[in-house]
Amino acid sequence: MKIRIIALLTAVMCFTGTFLATATPSQAAYPEKTISLVVWSGAGGALDVYGRKLSEMLTKEVGWANKVENRPGGSGAVGLSYMQAQPADGYTWVICTGTLSFGIAQGLIPFKTSDIEFIRAMQGEPTSLAVPKDSPIKSVQDFLDALKSGQKLRVGGHSSGGFHQYMLFQLTKDLGVRTPWIPHDASGKIPLALLGGHLDVAMMTPSSGFSQVKSGDVRLLAISTEERSPAYPDVPTFKELGFDLVDFIWRGVVVKPGTPPAALEAIQAALDKVEATQEWKEFMTSLDQSNPGYKGEEFRKYVNDQLTEQTKFLESEGYLKK
Amino acid sequence: MEHILSGLVTVFSPFGLLMVTIGVVVGMFVGAMPGLGPSIGIALLIPFTYSMDPQYALLLLVSLYMAAEYGGSISAILLSTPGTAAAAATVVDGYPMKMQGRSQEALGVSLTASSFGGMIGAIALILFAQPLAQAALLISPAGYFAIGLFGLTTVASLSGGSMLKGLLGAGLGLAVATAGIDPISGTPRFTFGYFELFEGVPVLSALIGLFALSEAFVMTEQPGGLGSVKTKFGVLFIGFAQIKRLFSTMVMGSFVGTVLGILPGVGGNIACWVAYARAKKQSGHPETFGKGEPKGVAAPEAANNATVGGAIIPMLSLGVPGSPTTAVLMGALVLHGLRPGPQLFMDAPIVVYSLFVGLAVSVIVMYLVGIFTLPLWARVMALPQSVLSVLIIVLGLVGAFTLRSLMFDVYLALGFGIVGYILKKFGFSMAPILLALVLGYLIESSFRTALVSSEGDYMTFVTDPIALVFIVLSILAVLWPIVSPYLKISRAPKGA
Question: Residues of A with CB below 8 A from B319's CB?
Fold first, then answer.
């Protein structure tokens, strides 16, 4: 008898439970389950650091349950394909970088920008023109003059057909000479190649040579930020030297298109909340990151413009057939 | 100094010590089990370190490496079956000691000598790795190409007898290493449209397949254990008189091991025999060797543990692994987003210095764990091979999945396992394949960077002094095994 009552009660509870569960979604606020932050690179890199800090802040400041998953591979294609295979419910975010548009331009990432819902670019890392301390090249103009006069310079940086080479291309495309480029497979190798005398000039992320720049062994001639970076107050920007070269490699959040507008709004609001905190600002300063501030449609437009420019660059340098 | 301190803090944190202890215990186990070894042990553990900070992951893995080099002597002494190739020389005197009822003493001598040798190797690592990394700044891409090539020439000593099979294996490894996005032109090669292969064949899948799974498949063919050995429980301290008697032998063995460890390809498996031969020569009573002479155990055991510190030096400072185990270890560093080489000392000094301190501490932990628990290991060896093989397969497949959460990697590991099993049946050694796989990328990318820098001029490999020296050394290393038999024949009549 007792068992029967328990069974009956259980049945009633199950029924009402199911009823409530099916009745609520339309009113339920996003999120009602754990969000996956899919980092499209391995653990330990700069992107992973950003993803994990974002995850921590979402938990702490917004109270959203979330977990970080690293899905590296395929120049980011692995992470993006995983996202495409998930429902468009806003529970799978991909934490990715500006190499996205290069990957699409080069045909390595089998998606179009219309296959991606752009949420926000939250970090931006510039590039800089760097030389060893005893280099005869003392300024950006020296460098351009040397190139123009046909002087043999070993110029290089991280990766092939990527952001730094693209920026060098933008700087030198009107000189009428072929842009030299010696690609290296790791950004950490660049300052060392300058120190060891294996490169004369490099285009590199300033932070990858932070200690060498601080010690004076590597000199930065110009940096690609809008205004001077607080971390390198003595380094002029390309812009103030009269070169139209302001760009950065962004890190940000994207989701699958078709995500309900309510969820998108909630995500934007949550990111606003994270970015407003003192802790996030300190995190950004400590890593010398600027905030690009692109959101939603503005972000998509920015990426599309980049894609057009980068495709031109890749075609011109022979990475892509016209 | 500041970095040494942060290394100390890492190692002596509760988690750091826990990692060292787990590494030591697992290392002794894989070392003692014939067929397993440090390479397999590390390959199986890497996936489980993935979520840890890299310094702790490295602590676990180097402690395992250290203890496994020692663990090989346990089965060498008790079963006359060396647990690792580097313990082969230990059998010669260790097993007779056991037959004379002196197994406790033999195990104690081996433990003491291993710890001594391990410590000397660790000190060498601390002294030489940093200066070498500094000097490495001067090495140009052409120089790196030549050093990588020189590393590859060691296939002769790793190929287990057949030079031809060693070269074929290395060729296979190099071919696999070409898959992925071309480092210079950015074009995908041999990816067959799978973007899972854009970053190249995942080293971890290859490691797990070639080393762990193939060995596990072989094990399933031999059911039953190795036979149990009864040992008494007790403390294995050998006494100060014995330590004094063995001291000079241990110093010699450690020296031999450290120096040979630094040379690519000459790991513990060769160092143990060199040290044994020297100990016999130096001894006033060479006739006692082979009949249960403790010095015959102390010399190879000191040597094979000293190779650990020595072998890590070029891997850490140059990013050029000289042995299968350090190649696996380098794979672990890369998976944690770290590139071995001079930049590692600047990017992640805490990892480097934790490794330094950790290796020394692992020796002490190994001695303490060994002295109290050694008799237990003798019983573990009774574990049936079939049980062990299932354990390896499960750990291996889970491990292959962990890194990128892709079933693709699991299938790939299985594929490598099957290929490795078949190759083993044909008498191929896995070490040259792995070494070529790990070195292939370095060799190719530095070769091509050098050529881009010199605008296509091949003379850069001759005009760069470092490149020239290592290219000449590589040629000599390849020619030597071919030429040396003829030299011996012509010399033999004189000796007889």
Answer: none
- Is A214 near chain B, with CB under 8 Å? no
Q: Could you read off the pLDDT of B18-59 as tens digits, one per residue?
A: 999 999 999 998 888 877 888 889 988 988 887 888 899 999
The torsion of the CA quartet B469, B452, B337, B341, rounded to 10 degrees, works out to: 20
Query: Closest residue of B to A81, CA-based?
Result: B195
**pTM given for the model:** 0.78
Task: Locate the chain A residue with the closest alpha carbon to B195.
Answer: A74
For B335, the closest of A42, A78, A212 (CB atoms) is A42
Q: Is pLDDT at A254 greater than 50 in this prediction?
A: yes
Q: Per residue in B61-109, pLDDT tens?
A: 999 999 999 998 888 888 887 888 788 889 889 988 988 888 888 888 9
For domain A128-223, the question of CATH label 3.40.50.970 is answered with: no
Q: Does B2 touch chain A (CB under 8 A)?
A: no
The residue extents of the domains of chain A are: 35-125+248-316, 128-223
pLDDT the model gives residue B492? 47
CATH of segment(s) A35-125+248-316:
3.40.190.150
The answer, for B127 touching chain A at a CB cutoff of 8 Å, is: no
Asked if A173 is an interface residue toward chain B (Cβ–Cβ < 8 A), one would say no
